Amino acid sequence: MSTTEALEGRILAQRKVLARILAHLNAAELDTFLSDRDHIEAHEEDPGSDPDGSFALEHALADELSKLRDEVARLRGG
Q1: Which residue of 2, 17, 36, 68 shows the fewest CB atoms closer than 10 Å?
Q2: Per-residue b/e over 2-29, b at no fewer than 16 CB within 10 Å?
Q3: Host domain of residue 25
């Protein structure tokens, strides 16, 4: 197994554990936190034109929070 595969596996495991915890807590504040941060608010016409890696990091963060939110909803049966 490569280092990349191992890292991806660890991140997926963490997401699954965290999703179960969040689904069990069923706290509105946490749901709002995920919903408010699962997308990127671009204030430019083309946010992808940003030459540095900041947009890529923001996109990855929003994508991960979206996946976490979806997994929590799935575990709650919704």
Answers
A1: 2
A2: eeeeeeeeeeeeeeeeebeebbeeeeee
A3: 3-77
Asked if 68 and 18 count as a contact pair (C-beta separation under 8 A), the reply is yes
pTM beyond 0.85, yes or no: no
Half-sphere exposure at residue 72, Cβ-oriented, CA atoms within 13 angstroms: 23
**Residue pLDDT, tens place only, 12-39:** 999 999 999 999 999 999 999 988 887 7
Q: Which amino acid is at 75?
A: L
> CA 33, 42, 23: angle at the middle one, nearest 5?
20
Q: What is the largest CA-CA distance in the chain?
A: 41
**Into how many domains does the chain fold?**
1
